[in-house]
Amino acid sequence: KAAARDAIDADQAVYTNLRGTSELRKAIADKMIHFNGIDCDHETEVTVTVGSAGAFACAAMSTLNPGDEAILFSPYYSYHRHMLELCGVRVRFIDLHPPEWRFEAASLEAAFTERTKMVVLNTPGNPSGKVFSQEELDTVARIAAKRGAWIVTDEIYEYITYDKPHVSVGSFPHARENTITISGASKTYAVTGWRVGYAVGPARVIEKMAVVNDALYICAPAPLQHGVAAGLRLSDDYYRAMRDDYRKKRDLLARILSDIGFIPFMPEGSYYMLAELIPGRWKDATEAAESILEGVGVATVPGSAFYRNPADGKNQLRFCYAKQDRDLNEACRRLKTLT
């Protein structure tokens, strides 16, 4: 915040380079090699966007045409599906089921057709909290390479993992030339409204994404780019403390939900948790979400909103525990009155 204020005071108020400030792109490149294991050129293989959502929009518009197909893993982050459909892309799905959220290579192979041009990953995932393993990512990389498809991997929750390490598929040598890695500041630094994201990938596609970004948004907020560059220089201690804090919040929410009869599916990453409803209490997740909101003032999202087949989530609610301790404790106190 201090760096952003300093940039405002220094009148950093005009459009930046269409790829973002050089300072921020250098900081992103340093972070990518240090944390993600991806060596990238900040001049040609990095572009700053209006949030990670803007990065995904630019990736879709730079690589896909109407009538092409893309593969999503269900449950999915709804923005990915909506943006693809807005672009006239047909979405095909791989169904994942709790609590393991696993998929078979054969199911991914079967989802491909001659029109499939992209596989979308979200790891750690929203809403499931799934963290794709190195073995799973290798399967995706191998099949995508064989089929000549892009991998677009949204890693916005990359620093928020608990029991499994975060792995970037873009770090695999055999995936480097067909992977676009997306992330941003929103979740890591709790600045969702700043709208500063980025994409890293082969120069040939980053060049096109930068042009699309310029056409759609011109640039991300200039002074906030300076703030994010400062954030990327924080020590590893910051990220360890953040993970520990979210782990405590996760464990608290899971314990409370279990105590009142829900079945929580423990997330491996992110700060969302899907939980199966108290048996027999509500007819479905929509009724449960409305009842809990009206009854105790705690907001949730019906699980059906995140699945290819809404019936797969009809008995699940998504909870978010990215809250101040006082607010999360109060929410848990209210939830306990449901017993």
Note down, in words, how this protein is organized.
This protein has 339 residues and is of the alpha/beta class. Helices cover 41% and strands 16% of the residues. The chain has helices at residues 2-9, 22-36, 51-63, 78-86, 105-111, 134-147, 203-216, 222-231, 236-259, 285-296, 325-336, and strands at 46-49, 69-74, 90-95, 116-122, 150-154, 179-184, 197-200, 263-265, 272-276, 301-302, 316-320. A seven-stranded mixed β-sheet has the order 1-7-6-5-4-2-3, sandwiched between helices. The protein has a four-stranded antiparallel β-sheet with strand order 8-9-11-10, covered by helices on one side. α3 (51-63) crosses α7. It is globular and about 55 Å long. It starts with a helix and ends with a helix. The model has no long low-confidence stretch (mean pLDDT 97).
Q: H/E order of the elements? A: HHEHEHEHEHEEEHHHEEHEEH
Query: Structural class of the helix and strand makeup?
Result: alpha/beta
Distance between the termini: 42 Å
Sheet with the most strands?
Answer: 7 strands, mixed
Number of strands: 11
Question: Numbering strands along the chain, what is their spatial order in the largest sheet?
Answer: 1-7-6-5-4-2-3
Strand content: 15-25%
Rg calc: 20 Å
> What is the average per-residue confidence, as pLDDT, rounded to a whole number?
97
Number of helices: 11
Shape: globular
Helix content: 40-55%
- Poorly predicted parts: none
How are the elements arranged and paired?
Elements: H1 2-9, H2 22-36, E1 46-49, H3 51-63, E2 69-74, H4 78-86, E3 90-95, H5 105-111, E4 116-122, H6 134-147, E5 150-154, E6 179-184, E7 197-200, H7 203-216, H8 222-231, H9 236-259, E8 263-265, E9 272-276, H10 285-296, E10 301-302, E11 316-320, H11 325-336
Parallel strand pairs: 2-3, 2-4, 4-5, 5-6
Antiparallel strand pairs: 1-7, 6-7, 8-9, 9-11, 10-11
Helix pairs in contact: 1-8, 2-8, 3-4, 3-7, 9-11
